Amino acid sequence: MIPKLLFIVPLFFALSWGEELKVVSDNFKGDQQKGISVFTGDVKLTKGSDELNASKVTIFTDKDKKPVKYVAEGDVSFYIVTEMKERYKGKSQVAIYFPNENEYHFSKKVDLIRIDDYRRVKGDKVIVNTVYGQASAESANNEPVVMTFTLQEKKSKAKSSTK
């Protein structure tokens, strides 16, 4: 069995997110000139309370070595907390995070749950902006987007009987 590789991603990743970014994987390949880092084999990425698991994670950086895009592929599962303190968990086949926009794009068999009020979205593509609390969903192949809400019913007042 190949031992897990543990990478504390260089300081520029940590500074861009404001917290330490930790990536654990079976394999790593990086090309500093192209600004690409590829982690494969049972990848687990953590940052604060956020967690992402996938078969492959690719991190793209700009010329200043700041991350501009994270792409997770293959049996992706995740737990994220937004700037508005909303907690989400879910799974998909692809997840892309754009740190400059604070936006996640989930695609292919998306099942996303907002934990705090159990709002659940199933579709082929779901976008969540973590700053503005905006979301959108699309589906493919003429299949519907399915959204589930937990509704709180109003308590009815007992009728008084007067005779």
From TrEMBL:
<protein>
    <submittedName>
        <fullName>Lipopolysaccharide transport periplasmic protein LptA</fullName>
    </submittedName>
</protein>
<dbReference type="InterPro" id="IPR052037">
    <property type="entry name" value="LPS_export_LptA"/>
</dbReference>
<dbReference type="GO" id="GO:0009279">
    <property type="term" value="C:cell outer membrane"/>
</dbReference>
<feature type="domain" description="Organic solvent tolerance-like N-terminal">
    <location>
        <begin position="23"/>
        <end position="131"/>
    </location>
</feature>
<dbReference type="GO" id="GO:0015920">
    <property type="term" value="P:lipopolysaccharide transport"/>
</dbReference>
<dbReference type="GO" id="GO:0030288">
    <property type="term" value="C:outer membrane-bounded periplasmic space"/>
</dbReference>
<keyword id="KW-0732">Signal</keyword>
<dbReference type="InterPro" id="IPR014340">
    <property type="entry name" value="LptA"/>
</dbReference>
<keyword id="KW-0574">Periplasm</keyword>
<dbReference type="InterPro" id="IPR005653">
    <property type="entry name" value="OstA-like_N"/>
</dbReference>
<keyword id="KW-0813">Transport</keyword>
<dbReference type="GO" id="GO:0017089">
    <property type="term" value="F:glycolipid transfer activity"/>
</dbReference>
<dbReference type="GO" id="GO:0001530">
    <property type="term" value="F:lipopolysaccharide binding"/>
</dbReference>
<dbReference type="Pfam" id="PF03968">
    <property type="entry name" value="LptD_N"/>
</dbReference>
